[in-house]
Each structure stands twice: as structure tokens, then as C-alpha cells.
Amino acid sequence: MAAARTLRIGLIPGDGIGLEVIPAGRQVLEAIASQFNLKLSFVDLEAGWATFQKTGTALPEHTVEVLKNDCDGALFGAISSPTTKVAGYSSPIVALRKRLSLYANVRPVKSVTGVANNRPVDMVIVRENTEDLYVKEEKTYDTPQGPVAEAIKRISTYASTNIGRMAFDIAATRNRQRAANPAGSIHKQGKVTITHKSNVLSQTDGLFRETVKAVYEADKQGANKYKDIKVEEQIVDSMVYRMFREPECFDVVVAPNLYGDILSDGAAALVGSLGLVPSANVGEGFAIGEPCHGSAPDIQGLGIANPIATIRSTALMLDFMGLEEAAAKIYEAVDANLAEGKLLSPDLGGKAKTQEVVDDVVKRLI
């Protein structure tokens, strides 16, 4: 028997219900470890608003260094950020994405039989994760007409090339999975939709559009990995309209940071709840699974937070660590839980507690 693969996973609950759902990810990993010859260890790390209030920094240097030097992957919960400016505070997850060069935020959104208000959806939104307006370079200055605030929108060829390759690689992988399991998707052919607003922002969004298209064209002259993938583009406002009217039209959507953030949260409404939608912050050789929902302080401590987004984010982290079979088993267990519909959390119209949902998924894994 081959030696066990050793994995050290960082756990960063953050704030609010992050403290309640990140343990779900750990329980799921522990449940499958022996089946996939994994030897797991975990390290608890801090970040978030509560950490800022306690220490004066939202992202301690210790957390960054441990992730860089001592972890194979990580799970991140949720952050409670103030709605008004607080001196010295900035989003720790945005900072972490930059510090670890996690240039892609990958958010699969897929409907499952058994969840109310579902639409036929099977898309992956691939969001550039390091630039655009999220460079957070803002200033306010006075004019005779009153204060004016400005923000820098930065788009680079380097980052747009990286995210373009990620999107096309994901589309190619999905094509291979469809070939192996034709009934597993609503799509017949892989497609990448480039989302932008270059009709107005001709330099920034124009550069993003042309750079992502260039990734596809360069592949045609070289490896030709993407030959079975269709490419289209969509202006972001019409993209929102079509996504809600015809979600079945979209397979892989690639977008700059801000549009990708908005689109992926909006897409969650198509499948029933933000509590179902996972994401992974991905760089070269490292991934952080992160549920798409926020810290939900209104339900903190009630034990009713939906753990599914975190469990799926755990599987997504494993996907990017090359453990596709382990990830697939988690996805199947989650889908079976949702399809049966007996243990659903309140956001899905059920009455199940967080731990009851976790226990049901774990039972399906062992």
C-alpha cells in the first residue's frame, strides 16, 4: 500500500457563523481521510473583525506565515466588516488573496433536485481575484462643488492572462467530465463567456476582453487544449439579465473582480440560497476554500447556519489539490442530502440544525 499523503489544513473561522461552519469542513475531511489514504492535521488561525478589535490587525502576520510555510490548503469562514471606515481596518480575505497570490476565485453554482425555487443551472463563475477596483486605491478631495471621491480600477495583461487560462482549463476539465458522464450536466459543449463593459470602459475592460480572447487564440496555435470549447462574450448588464432569464445558457463565466463578485452572489439566488454556494481562492499550488455567504450575525449562535457551502468549499479545495475522487464523493453526499430533502436548514425551508446537516452528510461518506 502506498504511503499516506500528509496534508496540513489551516482553519480560519473568522467571524459570525464562520465559527459554526468551518468545523463542518473539518468533520467532512476527517470522515473521508482513511478512504483516500490521507493523514490530516489542522492548525487554527485567526483573521477578521473580532481579531482586529482584539489585536489591532484583521490579518495577523502569523496567519499569513503559517499558511505560506506550513499548510497545504485552508478553509476560510466569513468576515464581519464595518459599514463605515475604521482607521487601520481592511478586509483580511482581500489582503490574503494578494499576499498568497490567489489570483482566481472559482465559484461553481449548480441546481440540485429537491431544493425549492431551483432553476436549471450548472455554471462556474471564474473571478479575477487580485485587481480591478479591489486594489483599494481611493482618495477624496475638495472641489468648489464639494468633495469628490475617486477609486482606481486596475486591469493588467498579466492578471487577465492568468484568469483566462484558469477559465479555459476549467472548461476543458468540465468537457472531459461530460464525456465520462453525459448525464451529469445540462450542457452538451464547453463554453466560456467573457464578461466585461468594454463598450464604456474601453481601456480597462477592453484590455481584459482582448487578453482573455488572446489566451484562446494562442492555444489554437499551440497545444490546442481548448479546441472543443466555444467562446462568447457578454456585456455585464445584459449578462445579469440573461443569467436570471436563461441561466442554462452559461457554462464557465470569466469576469474581472467586481463583476465576478456581483454575478456569483446573484447566481446563488437561482439555486435557492447563498448557503449552498462554495468558492475557492486559487493560486499556483495553493487553494483556500471559502463559502460565499457572509457572517450572518442575525443567526450567529442559533445553530441553524447552513454548512453546505462550507462542505462544498472543502471539496473544491480538494479538487485543486488534485484529490478529485475525494472531492467527488463529498459532492455526491451533499447532493444526496439535498435531493432527499429531509434534513434541510431554515434558509432552504427546513428545520434542521447545522450539526444535523453535517451528521447526515458525514453518514453518507462513511
Automatic annotation (TrEMBL):
Domain called Isopropylmalate dehydrogenase-like: residue spans: 8-361
GO MF terms, alphabetically ordered: homoisocitrate dehydrogenase activity; isocitrate dehydrogenase (NAD+) activity; magnesium ion binding; NAD binding
Reported cofactor(s): Mg(2+)
Enzyme class: oxidoreductase
EC identifiers of the protein: 1.1.1.87
Pathway involvement of the protein, from the record: Amino-acid biosynthesis; L-lysine biosynthesis via AAA pathway; L-alpha-aminoadipate from 2-oxoglutarate: step 4/5
Primary gene name: LYS12
Protein species of origin: Orbilia javanica
Family: Belongs to the isocitrate and isopropylmalate dehydrogenases family.
This protein's name: homoisocitrate dehydrogenase
Cellular component annotations (GO), alphabetically ordered: mitochondrion
Key words of the record: Amino-acid biosynthesis, Lysine biosynthesis, Magnesium, Metal-binding, NAD, Oxidoreductase, Phosphoprotein
Pfam families: Iso_dh
Cross-referenced InterPro entries: IsoCit/isopropylmalate_DH_CS, IsoPropMal-DH-like_dom
Keyword flag Amino-acid biosynthesis: yes
Reactions accelerated catalytically: (2R,3S)-homoisocitrate + NAD(+) = 2-oxoadipate + CO2 + NADH
Gene Ontology annotations of biological process type: isocitrate metabolic process; lysine biosynthetic process; tricarboxylic acid cycle
Keyword Metal-binding appears in the UniProt entry: yes
